[in-house]
Amino acid sequence: MPRVALEDFNDEEVARVYLAARLAEAQLVEAALNKQNVDYAVEVESYLAGAVFWVSEYRGAAFYAQADQADFSCGILRAAGLIAGLLEKEFQGP
Asked: Which end of the chain is more exposed for a tag (fewer CB within 10 A), N or C?
């Protein structure tokens, strides 16, 4: 499987490409990236989501890929219909 620890990217630049809010969504992201043999790492990260009157903190699965593979990885996820958690380039920092 192409899933690796974030530290295994060594000195290579990485980009955050997707933030999955639910386990089922994270599993679909993993399946899409595995199918294309993309090396990726997953880290649990906090994010804020809000309704009309309040904002709450949640935890999700952040997916990282090598920076030079970020566009390719995003294309794979977009083609698989996984667009809710795709991160724009300005939000892909580590």
From this structure: N
6-88 CATH, one of 3.40.50.300, 3.90.1010.10, 3.30.70.2750, 1.10.760.10: 3.30.70.2750
What confidence tens digit (pLDDT) does each residue in 12-45 have?
899 999 999 999 999 999 999 999 999 999 999 9
- What's the sign of the alpha-carbon dihedral 48, 49, 52, 55? negative
Tokens, residue 88: 């724009």
Q: What separation, in Å, do the N-terminal and C-terminal C-alpha atoms of the chain show? A: 22
pTM of the shown model: 0.85
Kindly state the tokens that stand for 15. 């980009």
pLDDT, tens digit (0-9, with 9 covering 90-100), for 41-64 = 999 999 888 777 888 888 999 999
Per DSSP (E only), the strands in the chain are 14-20, 40-50, 55-66
Distance CA 51, CA 37 (A): 37
